[in-house]
Every structure is written in structure tokens, then in C-alpha cells.
Amino acid sequence: MPQPARALTGAACALVLSTTMFTPAAFADDAEGDDATTSRNAISAAADSIRGELGPALSTYDQAKKTLEALEATDIATARVQGLQDMMYDGTEKRPTVTLRIDSVKDGKKTETSLREGVDFNVRFDGDLVDPGTVHVTITGAGDYTGTVETGFVILPADLANATIDMIPDHVRTSYPIEPDPVVKLDGRTLVKGVDYEVSYSENVNEGTATLMVKGIGNCAGDTHATFQIIANPKEGKIGYRAVFPYVAAAALACFAAFVVLAGALIHKRRKTKRLQAK
């Protein structure tokens, strides 16, 4: 205990002892009869008078003690706050552990003291501790420390650049846009389409490589993408050959008919020439 506090405490103890020891009972055996009664009454009145005089002094002592304690307490306004870095949204409540470190000079040497939460200071979090946004933090000194520090940290939207998309299987071409629903995960948590992200597609009609784009919404930001293959429909190939066959057959038949006509004409002409030569 500092010297001024010891002095105040000693004075208060002396005053209290004087009021408790100076009572009629202390002199009860020193007088008899009426003289004893008179002495006790006089002493009681004197004790009450002393107590009345000491009352303001004791009150002043209590006030002085409180003032002295306030003066002796260390203000945390200059303390270094650690542990309040920005954090990424993941759907859970954020209450980071706060550490205070304060410098002091003792015996001419600079020392660093680590304060203890719940003993040297208390922490209060204000605001939404789950969704993205700013969380306000109030740190208040306790015990041998006084003062207040106002600070905070930010919960950032989840970045989908760090998300993964489950493999998308091949799809058979249908002549319509193919839009499979992806399974998107971030930090082991499956995200919800329409809540955490939206999806767009490109090159997703004909055979080839299609692209699926995932863009963060709500509590998520950033984007990622995946690809999948669109392959030909085997049934469409068979149906195509069957559809072409009649046209091929018709063309072949037309060619054959033309050949027959031409051949017949040549034969007829040749016979006619022979008859003329015979005449």
C-alpha cells in the first residue's frame, strides 16, 4: 500500500479506537453509588460528543481514500489492444479474445504488463456478432486499472474465391440450355443457392465445354466457376441415319432410272443405224 494510503488508514484506526475504548464501561469500576452513575452519564455524554466530532473526519477519510485509489489506478487509455483483427463470415458468432498490454516505468526501467480480462479489464461487444458488418467493442478498466477504450473489428463477407464446387458430371445434349445445380462449399459448409450465391451459364447448349459461374450474394462476396461437358446423344445419331436413308435411296434410284433411259436410247439409236446400213 502506498505511503499516503497507509497514513490515512492509521489515522482512521486511531480515531475508531479512541471512540470504542472511551466508553462508560471502561470506568464502571472506578466509582460507586450516585457518584458512579453521575460519572457514567458524564462519560457517556463525552463519548457521544467525541463520536459526533469524529463523524465528519471519518467521512472525509472515506472520500480521501476513494480519491487516492482513483489517483493510484492506471489508465488503460494508452494500452495496446490485441486480438481484434477483422474476421471472415462463417455463420458463427464472433467473440475474439482481447489482450491488453500496457507500459509502465518502475525503478527507472520501462516494463510491459499483460492485463487479464475479467480481473484488470472487462470487454463488451455491441452489434451483430454473426453477419458481416462492424462490431463495436468497449474495454473498461477494473481493479487497479481505470479508463475506457473504444474500438472494434469488422466481420467481412465470405469470399467465394475460396469456395469449392463438386464435380459436375457430363450431360447429354438436348437442344435446350443445360443448367445443373452446383454443390458449393466453403470452409466445410454447404452454401445455399439464392441465399449465398447465384448461378449463370455459358456455352451450355451444344456439344463441348460449358461454363458455370457462381457469384456471391447476401453474406458472401466474390465468385468462382466450374466447367462440365455436353456430349452428343447416341440416339440422335441413329435417328439421323434413318432419316437420311430415304433421300439417299431416292437419289440412287433416280440415277439408276436415268442410266436405264440413257442406255435404252443408245441401244435404240444403234439398232436404227444398223437398219439404215442394211438397206
Automatic annotation (TrEMBL):
Keyword Signal attached: yes
Keyword vocabulary terms for this entry: Membrane, Signal, Transmembrane, Transmembrane helix
Signal peptide: 1-28
Membrane-crossing segments per the record: 244-267
Name of the protein described by the UniProt record: Uncharacterized protein
Taxon lineage: Bacteria, Bacillati, Actinomycetota, Coriobacteriia, Eggerthellales
